[in-house]
Specification:
heterodimer; A: 14 helices; B: mainly beta; 5-stranded antiparallel beta sheet; 3-stranded antiparallel beta sheet; 1 helix; 5% helix; 36% strand; globular
Chain lengths: 398, 146
């Protein structure tokens, strides 16, 4: 057995700071956010650390939609590791387990786990009581600062990013449309795709504007769908039925929850997650044979190509205009037809992984990328908010 | 200093989604009753904070106050919604949703109210205006700087 124990984790991470807030009356003043900030500050002080040292957050409850994103946004940090795992009372033990493993693997260095709730005060105010944070007072920031202005969501958030990219780099609607055109070319070779008829740049530009500068054909589908992947150890994988797709490298970064808080509308967290994944894999963008990028909208693909290092920042428009993403191109992308033409049941990330694995196994028929040994799948969550990159390879790349 | 500009909603427009008020932002919304735009500042870092919080997102300090804002800014990004999908925007026709960067350096999501929303461009200079809400508050929106 390894000296680090059966999991390899023994002694590799430690709890270094603690704090709590209690009251003999059972009541605490302040919102749950204020209480969270208070105990985080005290625990960091206890450890001799500052908020700027924190690169990982765990949070399980929210009255919004994404616990750890909203906490990190509130704290003003951009973590490179995140965990909103919610399992009730055991959540925090599980957070410790996850964070310890992540730290041992070098995914992050300083993780904060926090919880605050005021069920006693809530009951006194006539709200929900035990075990509930939903009953806590306090609207979501999005309700207070974005909803009143009627942006069409989610497309309007991406439209703002496209607006800024156009302003800074001269990116055109024709260039964005080329992404939809080349993605559709892949779909024509996929008998399971929702839309298989070819389209032209003019078709995209002639489709109705949904949120300028984005047209209907710049937008992903709305379909039903489901997907799953199974992971096991590389050693175990060798004894299974199909050739393994080894996880060569991963990286994650989230930068905001609301679009109005995105630090830079033209640079996503993929600029962090991509280099992390490539470094872990010992590879560079030039080594990748096929890419599966979350194509919620054409602008999403453009930003991801730049941020992941397939072309320099700002040059995504001219880069895609050459047709590199389509069949026969230098950088085959979204080979199912993507969220733009294959399927998009609200969240598309699972399908990126499924297709990357099939390409590495050589199972893709007409749309197979010959000799694919390294595949990159990149998911985007929220409104360009949470980015995660996975680089997979065949056994030949091990 | 010109008088604050009040821009009532179009007569046939649906009532906007009325923003809730969080504990940290009460002074912001209270000031809108008097047509004043204020921003939260961290007294330790001497930097503005938006949206208002109970702690500064740079230092986690809690020594925060609200100060008058210039109400001037530039359009950082803009999208035009041709057809309101949101029922609370019904009756407004095409409208511009913009991120406006205030002179103080923070960005607000907002509407730029003009006759032709397609004319709103990144880099345009804008100033705050106020749309009355039914509870006595006003919603900050922006118009081109005269």
């Amino acid at each position: 057995m390894s000296p680090d124990g059966p999991t390899g984790l023994r002694g590799r991470a430690a709890i270094v700071g603690v704090a709590d807030a209690v009251s003999p009356t059972g009541r605490l003043e302040g919102s749950t956010r204020a209480l969270e900030v208070q105990v985080i500050r005290e625990a960091l002080d206890d450890a001799g650390l500052a908020i700027t040292d924190v690169d990982a957050v765990c949070s399980n409850l929210t009255n919004g939609w994404a616990a750890s994103l909203e906490l990190a946004e509130y704290l003003g940090i951009s973590p490179r590791w995140t965990d909103s795992t919610q399992t009730g009372g055991s959540s925090f033990e599980i957070h410790v387990q996850h964070a310890a493993a992540a730290i041992a693997l070098g995914l992050c260095e300083v993780a904060v786990i926090v919880y605050a709730a005021t069920p006693y005060s809530n009951l006194k105010r006539g709200g929900a009581g035990f075990g509930s944070r939903q009953g806590s007072p306090g609207p979501t920031p999005a309700a207070e600062w974005e909803l009143p202005y009627g942006n069409r969501m989610p497309v309007g958030a991406y439209a703002l990013a496209a607006s800024r990219h156009r302003h800074e780099f001269g990116t055109t609607s024709e260039q964005l449309a080329r992404i939809a055109v080349d993605t559709r070319r892949w779909a024509t070779m996929n008998p399971r795709a929702r839309h298989r008829e070819p389209i032209t740049i003019d078709d995209v530009l002639a489709s109705p504007v949904v949120a300028s500068p984005l047209h209907k054909l710049d937008c992903c589908l709305v379909t039903d769908g489901a997907g799953a992947v199974v992971l096991t150890s590389a050693a175990r994988a060798r004894d299974l039925r199909k050739a393994p797709a080894l996880v060569l490298g991963t990286g994650t970064s989230h930068t905001h929850a609301m679009i109005s808080q995105m630090p830079d509308l033209t640079t996503t967290g993929a600029a962090v997650s991509g280099p992390l994944a490539f470094a872990a894999a010992g590879l560079s963008p030039a080594d990748v044979d096929v890419i599966e990028l979350y194509d919620s909208f054409t602008i999403t693909v453009l930003l991801l190509l730049e941020d992941l290092g397939f072309c320099p920042k700002g040059e995504g428009g001219p880069f895609v205009a050459e047709g590199v993403l389509g069949p026969g191109g230098a950088l085959p992308a979204n080979t199912t037809g993507g969220g733009l033409a294959y399927t998009h049941p609200g969240m598309f990330g699972i399908f990126l992984l499924v297709e990357a694995v099939r390409q590495l196994r050589g199972e893709c028929g007409d749309r197979q990328v010959p000799g694919a040994e390294v595949a990159l799948a990149h998911g985007s969550g929220g409104v360009l908010s949470a980015m995660s990159t996975v680089i997979l390879g065949t056994e030949a790349t091990a | 200093m010109t008088d604050p500009l009040v821009l009532p909603a179009p007569a046939d427009a649906a009532e906007r989604f009325r923003p809730p008020v969080s504990a940290a932002s009460e002074p912001f919304w209270d000031a809108t009753r008097e047509l004043r735009l204020v921003l939260q500042w961290c007294r330790s870092c001497e930097r503005p904070v938006h949206f208002p919080r109970e702690a500064c997102p740079a230092c986690l300090g809690t020594d925060l106050d609200f100060r008058p804002a210039t109400g001037r800014g530039t359009v950082h990004a803009v999208t035009v919604i041709p057809t309101p999908a949101n029922p609370t925007m019904a009756g407004r026709g095409p409208y511009a949703v913009a991120l406006v960067e205030l002179a103080e350096g923070v960005r607000l999501l907002t509407n730029v109210i003009v006759d032709d929303p397609a004319s709103v461009a990144v880099g345009d200079a804008v100033i705050v205006a106020w749309e009355p809400l039914t509870d006595g508050r006003h919603l900050p929106v922006f118009v081109p700087e005269p």
